[in-house]
Amino acid sequence: MFRSYLFPTTIVITALLALLMVFATCPVYAAEGPLAPVNLRCEYLTNPVGIDVRLPRFAWVDRHTGRAQVQSAYQLLVASSPELLAQNKGDQWDSGRVASDDPTQVVYNGKPLESDHSYWWKVRWWDKDGSASDYSQAVSFDVALLSAGDWKGQWIGGANQLRQEFTLAEAPRRARAYICGLGYYELRINGAKIGNNYLDPGWTTFDKRDLYATYDVTANLQRGANALGVMLGEGWFHSRVLLLQMDIELASGKHVTVTSGPTWKAKNGPIVSDSVWDGEVYDARLETPGWDQPGFKDDGWMPAEIVKAPGGVLSAQMMPPIQDVDSMIPIALTNPRPGYYVYDMGQNFSGWVDLHVSGPRGARVQLRFAELLYPTGMINRENIREAKARDIYILHGEGEECYHPRFTYHGFRYVEVTGYPGTPSLDSLRGHVVRTAVKTTGSFVASNPLLNQIHRMIRWSDLTNLHSVPTDCPQRNERMGWMGDAQVSSEGLMLNFDTTAFYTNFLRDMRDDQGTDGTITDTVPYGGYGNRPADPAWGAAFPLITWYLYEQTGDRRIVEENYDGLKKYEEYLHSRAPDNVLRYSYYGDWVATERTPGAEVSDFYYYYDTLVLSKMAAALGKSADAEMYSERAGLIKDAFNKEFFDPKSGNYTTGTQTANDLPLFLDMVPPQYHGSVVSNLVDNILYEHNTHLTTGLAGLRYLFPALTQNNQASLAYDLATQTTFPSWGYMLASGATTVWELWQNKVGPHMNSWNHHMLGSIDAWFYEGLGGINVDADQPGYRHIRIEPQITRDLTSVSATVGTVRGEVTSSWTREPGVITLQIDVPVNSTATVSIPWEPEMTEFTVRESGRIVWERGHFVEGTPEVKARGTTGVTPGVMSGSFKDERVIFEVGSGHYDFRLNGE
Ligand code: BGC
């Protein structure tokens, strides 16, 4: 009896469960429409604490469930409190509904922003059909000190530890600390380090500009007694000075300001010496416990000295700071000689190590850093040159001690430890990667593991050379912002990381160093190394990085801010080229294995600089300038061909790969000779060098795109995957984990860093060539994208993503016999031209998009408008048109995710 009742109940429950599971696994189809904006940024930063721009720019990313979507309008609210914003009240600025299809550079247009104030904002948007999204989440930005007059404190110094106590009658409601401590500082309040920045502030030409950091210290302060402690290092300033201001709003609304000045106390602490190149000596016996806490007896301390200001304009540091971004566990520990312990971190990088030790008071542990080992297992520091690159720690002798330096960094894979009391273990050291903390926004993965290893090696070099400026190397007595290195790698960095704020800052550094005669310097900040005027290939960093940033972001302000300086630089070059040929050169095609005359390299850059300046003039609507520079570029091109091209041989100058790839890249070759220059380049690579490259820094940058533009992507691929000298595969096979400075495997003294990013410029081609993601310079900021992957040789798949200002762009392809698939993502407000190659063996092919035929028997298959709108059969909405050109089938698409599949016979 019971059974007969139970049985059906079980069935019903099971059926219900099954139904539930069906619902759970099926996607929930929300009504089609716009989604709330994400990735809200102000001045290219997320929730910045401390900007000093009166009219900041806002940007966000629109998302939509449908395809081919464009923002028709937005509404942005800026409020003086989160509560007001939550009620949709933009008391600072309510933009109202603004018709615009650009969510990337909306300029603040509300009540004047005030110094030392916080603001909150959010935004919503309307799609092309007029449907509104929800508002985004609320985010904030803090305005720091907008004018020099806002600063109340005095510059002080006198020792490397400075302290001050003060009392607050109430708990704070809002408190901000503004600090410029040169060369480097560590700010401490009531016993704790404030923030996660290291090696702060960023390096500048200090008599021109000094960066200050802003911290929200509300939670660090308390009612009653408080203590401020600042440690100072020499850094690139080679001295120690401090300016600090803390603006505190108490619970009652009363304001209190604490500033650096003569009432501060000074005393040298445990850091006995510190230097970027040489490292730090830290005597823990000199620690003064409690010095950064209230109630400390500072009787033995001297009054701080009032010192001369460094002389530069104070500017908010508006870029990602240098931080400890990763830790590294050593992979091996050896003992090659009694008392010498050598740690292998398994990876070359920039930063330092944490030392864990216990032992007698006064024991002295020395850490020496190296990129290389001798066959004996001892560290080889010949290529570190004169940098001492060592840290010394002297124990206080109580319990386990833990130390890492504050005011230096090293470039290393190996660490030699001497003087360690007892026997160190693998756990006695931890590596820490310290560099400018840019976010990773791009990714590249290919079916050929060698390409992935090369990409990885380049990423390590690029990243560990970000130290508030792009340095050449992180290990030897150099670490300069060499401009040639910077310009060749910058586009690859922009594709991999969120670097807009970083390069915006670097461009300002260049302007700071520009001479009144327009000259640019080889290194920025300038000093120590290099020349003024810069080698033209190095000076080109100024126009080219401005141009790349404009291409990547479409941001006119970046161009506006640099335009006058760029014109001055252009006119300087012009003054050195009376017959339209710029010949002066110091380094030219630096580190090439075959020589190309420096004059050709310099003149190529003169042409390139002039060309991009004419384009930037056009972008700003300066048509007279645009025309003048474009005409001048024409004259330079003609003069270049006259001076350097030999029509008889079809070669430029020495006929090296660099000599021919430079003019090919910029399409400078007279059309009737184009074919012979291409075949000379190909022959040189194939037959004279057995598929190896000979280029230096300049020629390398353009070799891969030049080959690709001229139908030689397969040859470019062969070069990229070469494994014998000279090649990246050779570096890897020789044990490189970061890119070398030279193609040669050298380990002796002089110039052979094992971590130089400049020969990593091929990374841009991985994204643009193999991945096929290309920005269209005529519609910058990825408003229009060209997706044009190179499907070649044994590659069976590539997947690339670029985090653009409008959102993520992805291109991901696979290939098997007879089938090519391509999945792409195009952000809202962007369109793309998608170009899919077909295999020459195919006689006939069909293309489906998400299962629907869009190309058949040589024709685009267009759906009826109703079908298009419904998206059930025929052409998928979003695929606007199709055509066929140069063995590629080409579709125009709007925003959205697309899944193409080409089947051939
Ligand atoms: C640097 C380079 C730089 C070069 C200029 C070297 O010492 O490390 O990377 O571009 O000098 O000649």
The portion of residues assigned to helices is 10-25%
Rounded mean pLDDT is: 95
How far is it from the N-terminal to the C-terminal residue, by CA? 65 Å
Gross morphology is: globular
Number of strands: 49
The radius of gyration is 30 Å
What does this structure look like?
Helix 4 crosses helix 16. A hairpin with a 2-residue loop joins strand 47 and strand 48 (888-893). The chain is 25% helix and 31% strand. Strands 20, 21, 25, 26, 27, 28, 31, 32, 33 and 34 form a ten-stranded mixed beta sheet that branches. Strands 35-40-41-42-49-44-45-46 form an eight-stranded antiparallel beta sheet. Strands 2, 4, 5, 6, 8 and 9 form a six-stranded mixed beta sheet that branches. The protein has 905 residues and is α+β, with helices and mostly antiparallel strands. The protein is globular and about 90 Å long. The chain binds beta-D-glucopyranose. Beta-D-glucopyranose is lined by residues 472-473, 478, 482, 484-485, 587, 590, 751, 756, 758. Residues 472-473, 478, 482, 484-485, 587, 590, 751, 756, 758 line the site of beta-D-glucopyranose.
